[in-house]
Design goal:
Rossmann fold; 8-stranded mixed beta sheet; 8 helices; globular; 8 strands; 37% helix; alpha/beta
């Protein structure tokens, strides 16, 4: 892993929003840092919901997909509950085979119209994460599709069948990307690190199948959030979620 380099200090993310939707590819994607911010938001009374495009059924080498999918779905629901999220929905795309395209955009746009969030949080869709780590194919497809689905959700003439289903257009105010090598904002999560670790630890079957040398949740989550604090360069901030933020109105 390359040592991350940071640019100018980040701005604190304005938290004048009432609701947020997290859109990711797999169970556990939110738990690598973003869950700390979610814990902060739900504690403040904001409504946060999750939408996962797969059930992570290809993510456990020792467990066939038909068995792994329900296990990982249950683990994600338990994980979400740790940080105050009760509404967790899943798409029906195949883990490891998520393809960018109209079907993916439509599914995400439908969920945006259904939940009507002020803020949408997804993952970075470039080839590499911060620190030079290679990004995974499903992450790239879902991140890019979310960019387009945010626009699709606000235009009634794109996917007009969604209106027929009862989902009127909705304009998202803010779009944010976790894991970006070029963040613009941060969320101070110094008092939410333990909850974020507990949230990742709820993925018991998944974590137990990882190689022994893979960092444990109580090592990995603090490290990610400490890197976010380094990027933030803000006095008194020891742990932060760094986000690349686009304001849309």
């Amino acid at each position: 892993m390359d040592a991350p380099s940071f640019g100018p200090p980040l701005e604190p993310l304005p938290e004048d929003f009432a609701s947020a939707l997290c859109v990711v590819a797999h169970p556990d994607d939110i738990e690598y840092g973003t869950a700390a911010a979610v814990a902060r938001w739900t504690e403040a009374g904001k409504t946060v919901t999750y939408f996962l495009l797969t059930r992570g059924e290809a993510g456990i080498d020792t467990m066939p997909p038909g068995e792994a999918g329900p296990v990982r779905e249950a683990e994600e629901r338990a994980s979400a509950a740790v940080v105050g999220v009760t509404e967790v929905d899943f798409g029906n795309h195949r883990d490891g085979n998520v393809e960018y395209g109209l079907d993916l955009r439509r599914d995400i746009a439908r969920e945006i119209r259904r939940r009507r969030p002020d803020l949408v949080v997804t993952g970075h869709y470039g080839d590499r994460f911060v620190a030079g780590m290679l990004n995974q194919a499903d992450h790239r497809a879902v991140g890019l599709a979310t960019v387009d689905a945010v626009a699709d959700a606000g235009n009634r003439w794109i996917f007009p069948e969604l209106v027929d289903e009862g989902f009127e257009p909705w304009n998202v105010a803010v779009l944010a990307f976790a894991g970006s090598p070029q963040p613009t904002h941060y969320v101070d999560v110094g008092d939410k690190v333990a909850l974020a670790v507990e949230s990742l630890e709820a993925h018991t079957a998944y974590n137990s199948a990882l190689p022994d040398e893979f960092p444990k949740p109580d090592q990995l989550v603090p490290m990610i959030l400490e890197m976010g604090a380094q990027a933030a360069q803000a006095d008194g901030v020891t742990h932060a979620l760094a986000l690349d933020v686009v304001t849309r109105r």
